[in-house]
Amino acid sequence: MADEPFRYQQLEQWLLQGIHDERWKPGDRLPSIRELCDQRGLSKATVQHALQRLEAQGLVEVRPKSGHFVSLVPTITKTPRIISRIEAPRPVTVSDLFQDIMRRSAAFDLLPDLHAGALPPGIVVLNRAIGRALRRQRGDDFQYYDEPAGEQLTIQLARRGWPAQPDDLCITSGCQHALFLALMASCQRGDVVAIESPGFYGVLQLLEQLELQVVEVPTSTDTGMDIDALEEILEHWDVRACVVSPAFATPGGALMPMDARQRMMALADRYDLALIEDDIYAESGFSQIPDTLKALDETNRVIHCSSFSKVLSRDLRLGWISGARWHSRILHLKLVTQLASSRYLQQGVADYIEEGGLTSHLRRQRGLLRERRDQLLTSLQAWPVPVRVTIPQGGLAIWLELPDGVNTLAAYPQALDQGIVITPGPLFSVSGEYTNCLRLSFSHPWDEQRSRALS
Amino acid sequence: MADEPFRYQQLEQWLLQGIHDERWKPGDRLPSIRELCDQRGLSKATVQHALQRLEAQGLVEVRPKSGHFVSLVPTITKTPRIISRIEAPRPVTVSDLFQDIMRRSAAFDLLPDLHAGALPPGIVVLNRAIGRALRRQRGDDFQYYDEPAGEQLTIQLARRGWPAQPDDLCITSGCQHALFLALMASCQRGDVVAIESPGFYGVLQLLEQLELQVVEVPTSTDTGMDIDALEEILEHWDVRACVVSPAFATPGGALMPMDARQRMMALADRYDLALIEDDIYAESGFSQIPDTLKALDETNRVIHCSSFSKVLSRDLRLGWISGARWHSRILHLKLVTQLASSRYLQQGVADYIEEGGLTSHLRRQRGLLRERRDQLLTSLQAWPVPVRVTIPQGGLAIWLELPDGVNTLAAYPQALDQGIVITPGPLFSVSGEYTNCLRLSFSHPWDEQRSRALS
């Protein structure tokens, strides 16, 4: 019995074999749950379990009301490799290339000069709400500094397991600003901060700026930070804070499973860590919006950071932070360094959320992102060289591993000459690794022009 | 001849005597320029010169198309006293009261809960321009980070003696944010920074935050920073930077004369100072908009900081910085801590300036502020206690010295209980001085309710 696979495992193997043998080709519809139950003499629960496992591996996709389809990319599902070596904490020195890419801003787009197309309907509605908030300004409103947002944000967050109160939030100029305040409030110069590798390069820049030391935690591009590696690091070194992006982390779109989150919280308690949650991609989840890490925070040590830049509009510059035990220090820091945030803007966005504009926009956006992800993955199947890619269930980008010897950093200026901005792998770490890796965005339609640009 | 006063001085003395003897009472119209020419046998230029000097002293006011009037406040023109003692540099510890007052934000208003009245026409036009910029967003505009403002700002600044280029400017979230970037870029922890005393409390908070040391420079509430005192300080201590507000500095509205500016520039060169110019009040000048200090900067050491918060709307959160030799470091700091600033907002404000909206608004605003200043000063004449006040030619506030023994800091919570926010003198220094002083704003109409609130 012990060696005999479960029934769902048998079905899973059978389906896998069928996909491998191309009985069902990429894009084909699999037999329905009912058909599988009948054909294989299995219960509905067993069939669903097997399909869910295939879905979790990115081999099968659920299309609501249509059934299960073979994912478009089964030939390239090998997950990119990540570092496994752990190195001692060290100061951060970031190359000028970071600044260049951040200034070119796109970073998420291959062809940043391409500004075509009409405004998405969700943004039109948003802009109308902001316009109305501007027209509703009365009397001396414009002479005061304060923060009217919060309530609508807490309603959104409560749906993700965290019953936040408006006073728990502080409005910021985007998520990068929130991360800056979080690190400034929870760390002192020279402190060691654990981060994901590969991970968001903006954090590396903040660490450099604040003269903090970094230790990189090997991070799966599927399931996020390696908790065993984190534990090993915490045993060895005195780590003050850990920046983590549990939901669809850049660059690979990893989603941290619940057991890893719980283990991380327990470690944070044991080693008295500040956990800085970068939640910016969470609402992009194609089939589920994961709970916040903050929802598990019983010891008031998770600093939650996010903004609307990834799922709504970068141009709002509207983010937020909930500072846990460091919150009053964060409020003070924000006040001292910047005073306040736009009230009309917050009011406009709050109205937009309240009237359901955000929910509709996100619904459309998620479908769109999924489509664009598939377009991108499909176009990669035609590539002349073998690649390994992530198949993220959220976020705006995939992580691509090219054959050994390819140097994406060297390719950056060449691509730039042709007006193409790529995000080379080495930017996502200070380890010097990932020279043959690349982050590719699917936040724009994967059209002919971009497709040609890449090849 | 050497001892004989010039003809304009004789006329000035004669007019002063007449005001003193109440031949012309506060609010009275003086004889017209033509009448004075005829009666006193003087040239038009001489009469104008004398009147201009009286105007500069705040004793006489020009009302366009009406003539010259005796200022409403000749009985209280004694300038408040300031510190003359110089103390060694020291770390800054700022009381919680600062944060409280900044959070109550008003700081510039006595009754912050009073939000009545229609929106000023200049703000209505501004909001329309921003609304249009929002509607004009196209395609993927909202997905990019960049800064379209600049050109219109440089046109404004060029009129003030400084031919800035758009690339010289970096957009910030207001002037406090600009000052933060300026200090962070030009100083290291422990450095000594010279500031005005009394001066803007927001700078003290920044120094505390950045762990910089402060040395306070005695500062006249009429003519600004005492350059002799500054020189003495620079001889004694190794000062890294000096924050100065040459145009209508808070709290008193001082305007630094040209010779003081030139001496300050020469000292900055000799002692290799970063000069951080807080220019936020400049455009409020009632009869003249002074040139920027930056206009005198031949050695690339003046960091110019400003925003639209004081003369247009606090709710824009739109400021700028020109970082001189520290500019690239400032650009990097801004990028790392906050990425970008709203593009639609900058576009809206740029359009507003280009279409002449700002110019019209400022013209109306200056007249209004002058009227409100006079209302406030008039109401002070009726006070039961003797006061010394500044009579500023710009800015939004006066500085008020009450009799010795009055403790404005102790009065703060009492006033707060009645819903009144005052800005106690001790907040404008770390010296412990100014306990009997107060900053009073005239940025709101000085109506009955506020008048009662004060007494």
Automatic annotation (TrEMBL), chains A, B:
Domain HTH gntR-type: 5-73
Keyword Phosphoprotein belongs to the record: no
Transmembrane feature ranges: none
Record-stated family: In the C-terminal section; belongs to the class-I pyridoxal-phosphate-dependent aminotransferase family.
GO molecular-function term, one example from the UniProt record: pyridoxal phosphate binding
Name of the molecule in the record: Transcriptional regulator, GntR family with aminotransferase domain-containing protein
Keywords: Aminotransferase, DNA-binding, Pyridoxal phosphate, Transcription, Transcription regulation, Transferase
Source taxon at top rank: Bacteria
Matching SUPFAM superfamilies: PLP-dependent transferases, Winged helix' DNA-binding domain
